[in-house]
Amino acid sequence: xxxxxxxxxxxxxxxxSGRLTPQQILHRVRHEFQKETPIQDSWINTRPxxxxxxxxxxxxxxxxxxxxxDQQLIQYDFLADANTGSILELKRNNFNAQxxx
Length: 101
Description:
Blueprint: H1 2-11, H2 22-34, E1 39-44, E2 49-53, E3 56-69, E4 72-81, E5 87-98
Antiparallel strand pairs: 1-3, 2-3, 3-4, 4-5
């Protein structure tokens, strides 16, 4: 997971100048995931939501990416800062959905 976050930093998702649109954030997240394996689907909310973690208060976009890993559909959910595009949280969800070939 640290490698993924580092990849996002290197790709410029953590840039400080200029505000990214939800579509730009999703495009960059998709790009990083596709470096490992094709993705099945992705989404992002276009309305920012208030977010607080400890002393950090900001607005975030909630999004997700799904892809096949070992014949299972795996969903990743993320929260991206609405002002900077920084990924604040990334969570892997396994729905145990076995796919038949």
